[in-house]
Amino acid sequence: MIRKFEEKDHKLLDEWCKQYGWESFPKSTISPYSYVIEKEGQLIAFSQFYKAEGCGMCSLGQTIADKEADAIVRRKAVNELIDHVVAEAESVSDYMIYSTDRNALPIIRRLVQRGAVITDEADAYILFMGFDKKDVEFFKEGHE
Questions:
Q1: Which whole number is the average pLDDT over 5-15?
Q2: Dihedral angle at the C-alpha atoms of 22, 24, 30, 35, nearest 10 degrees?
Q3: Residue 46 in contact with residue 16, Cβ under 8 Å?
Q4: Where are the domains positioned within the chain?
Q5: How far apart are CA 7 and CA 41, in angstroms?
Q6: Which of 30, 51, 55, 84 is 20 to 30 Å apart from 131, CA to CA?
Q7: How large is the average pLDDT for residues 23-48?
Q8: Fold of 2-141
Q9: For the whole prediction, is pTM greater than 0.70?
């Protein structure tokens, strides 16, 4: 089950960040467009996006999953959650961008499978996902 992130979920985010050796996400950085996925009563993963005010752009934020969850369950849950977050982003914006380093290759692969275009892959990856197919074709022309 996918649902909106609730403040009570933040404690689990802190635990998951520790599993990966990351800094915790401050509560003030949690977007109103934040979601968790639950399987058999256990929270498995979190993802969010940020909507820019005054334009049709959003940015994919952090995605993290419980490292101790079964690997197959975790992989399926993250895939389902990414699909949900992309659909939610599409419902409120025209474009989504994602910028990350090479440590996020699994998320990058998931986004490319869903139509994102890598526009830069030097020290970091920058991906573009247009929800209008004309925009996607425009970005693909110069980046394939």
A1: 94
A2: 60
A3: yes
A4: 2-141
A5: 17
A6: 30
A7: 92
A8: Aminopeptidase (3.40.630)
A9: yes
